């Protein structure tokens, strides 16, 4: 596997004597100031979260490695090596998952990106001015980045870069009601694609890499890093999925710490445990704190049991998005040396089993969602299941049955792509 880091443009600088050294120092200082102004350099994180300030939780900086590991957004070198070996051996489920990816529209070598300056996404993506186009293009870029890494066919590298270059040349903003969620969906996939291509391929010019980084830094990151405490929980978790991935790509420790801090507050407010008390936790920064407000926020559900989620009584589809995004953040953090999985273990494992049971057809009791649930959680559980069941050996029989009988191989949609391929049984 080829590893490459791209820094300067390779231009040779010549200096002569004392005046030359002074000139070089001046250029260096100016460059550093410009980099700071553009956000390429970051100051250490100043944690404003009360729990962090009080020392009740370790900060990301205190527990993760000082520098980021690359590639390190959702998938690592070791994980991709594992997948490559399994596919080459024709082992299942990786062979079927790989074939599904290769046959998908996202793997087309004649993919035509459709960038635009302003992506406008209203409620439910209505109006849809570039929303689907950006999401689809980001998924295609990530698909080609995976295929490049698994096959070393440079045509896929070229396609991935073509798509990212097209968007970085044009995109200026996301607008309207769904802008934060849209930015999360597309930003999560773009960060994964960019991370793989930046660190495994030498053919992406430093100038185009910088332009792509500027897009993520100035268009995507400011929208997602603020969080969305009063929205349904899948929004904020998807936004943190994008924020952590973008932060790793940009080597932005302060933004990574901030995203992790939001995740640490949102997951306990999204999945209930009886140890929380008679009511679920209120999202940090939310105005929803009375009993009535919290019950309304939990879709009218007034009986709370281990593993119930804030959107369970809305539908399993959005709930599954929340679980997947939470696991994505934990997986990226794990690669970076930070164990968020353990912090969420009780909530996540109980939530997986609780929802898998009803997705498999268990009778819904009268106290749950007025006796009826909207099933259809989707193929969203591979990353979390792989960590808790395969790596840690926790028994999750209903989740296992659901994944193995109804969800494999997972495909690509919104901010999810090929997770049976990348994470099924992956010990790395």
Automatic annotation (TrEMBL):
Region described as Disordered: spans on this chain: 1-23
Top-level taxon of origin: Bacteria
Alginate lyase domain ranges (all copies): 136-358
Entries under SUPFAM superfamilies matching the protein: Chondroitin AC/alginate lyase
Record field: compositional bias (Basic and acidic residues): 1-15
Membrane-spanning segments: 25-47
GO CC annotations on file: periplasmic space
A GO MF term: lyase activity
Protein name (Swiss-Prot/TrEMBL): Alginate lyase family protein
Keywords: Lyase, Membrane, Signal, Transmembrane, Transmembrane helix
